[in-house]
C-alpha cells in the first residue's frame, strides 16, 4: 500500500519536477533527509529518489537559464565548502587501505555539498527561503513524527532503535531534534490557527520520539534548544513557553525507565559507555597525530584494519585513565571523528564551516538593526532558528559520530542564503549586479 501511495504521489509531482528547478531542488533536499526507501517494502524501495531529483535540478538549471535567478559568488561560505570538498578528496585518496565505506562517505559528502552550493542560485526571496525551512523541518522531523505516534499508540512502550538513514537511537534523537527550532520558527509566523496547532503537534511528537530513544543526548539537546531560544531568540517569552510545554509533555509521558536512564548523566565518569567513548577519542587523536594533515580516511577511527595499530596509543588524552577496549568502536564525537578521519587541517575547516552559520546570524542581525527595517525582522528569527539548530548539533555532536550527515551542511547553506538576501534588501544598488534579471 505504501508503495502505491508513493507512486501516486510521485506521479502527481512529476509536472513540477520537469518544469521547475526550484521545485526539484526542494524535492532533492526533502528526499535527501526523508530516506523514503527506508519506509518502502515493495517495488518503490529501490527507486533512487535523491538521484532523480538531483539530476532533474541540474538539467533544468543548465537548460533553462532563466530559472537560475541568483548568481553564484565565491563568498566565504563557498570557499569553505570547496576547501572542505578538496580536502575530503585527498583524505579519501590517501586513506589507509581496506577501510570500509571510505569512498562511499566521501562521495555522499560531495553530493551534499553540491546541493549546498546550488542553494544560493535559487533561494533568492522570502517565499523560497520559507519553503526550504518547511522542507528541511518535514524531511528530518518526519521521522520523529512517525516514531512519536508509535510511542503514543503503544502507551509508552515503543522503543526507537534508529534507522539506516539517521543511525542508532542516539543519532536518531539528535537528528530529529534539529527540526524543532525550524518548526518553532514556522509556528511563530503561521497565521492559520490550524497550522499553528499542527506545528505544536509536530514538536510534541518529535519530543515523544526522543523519549522513545532513551537517549541521554536527546535530553541534552532539549536543554540546548531551551537555552538558545530563551537567551538568543528575539521572541524570548514564546521560546520559553514552548520549551516549558515540551518539558511538561516529557515529564508527563516519559516512563520510569527513561528517568532512570537520564539519572546516569550524573555519573558519566563511572559509566562504561562514556569511558568507552573516551577510549575512542584517544584512538582518533592518535591517528591524527601520526597523520596531521589528512588523517586516516573516512571511518578510520572504527576501521578494523587499523584498530590494532592504534589500540594502545594515547593520542592527546593520555592523562585520562580508560579501560581497554577490544573492538574498533566509533569515534562518538563529531570533533574526534573529523580529527581522526581528516586530520587537524580537516577539523579546522570543519569547525570554520559550522561556525559560518553563526557569522551569518551575526551579520543578518547587524544589517537589520542598522537599517531599521522592521519588515526584515522575520529574517532575524529565521537565522536564529537555523543557528539554534546548529547549536544543538554542535553540543550533542560532542558525543556522537555525525560529522558527515546532511542536515548541518544544509543549515550552513541556508544561513548563507539568508545573509545574501538581507544584503540585497538593505543595499539593493550594491547587490543588483549579483542577481540575474
Automatic annotation (TrEMBL):
Question: What start-end ranges are recorded for coiled-coil regions in this protein?
Answer: none
Q: List membrane-spanning regions.
A: 7-30, 36-62, 74-99, 105-124, 129-151, 171-187, 194-211, 217-233, 240-259, 342-362, 383-405
GO function terms (MF aspect): ligase activity
* Record's subcellular location: Membrane
Q: Which UniProt keywords apply?
A: Ligase, Membrane, Transmembrane, Transmembrane helix
- Indicate the segments forming the DUF5935 domain, all copies: 1-187
* Keyword Protein biosynthesis carried by entry: no
Q: Name one Pfam family in it.
A: Wzy_C
Q: How does the protein associate with the membrane?
A: Multi-pass membrane protein
Q: Where is the O-antigen ligase-related domain?
A: 202-351
Q: Which InterPro entries match?
A: CHP03097O-antigen_lig-rel, DUF5935, O-antigen_ligase-rel_domated, WaaL-like
Source domain of life is Bacteria
Protein name as catalogued = O-glycosylation ligase, exosortase A system-associated
| Species per Swiss-Prot/TrEMBL record | Roseateles subflavus
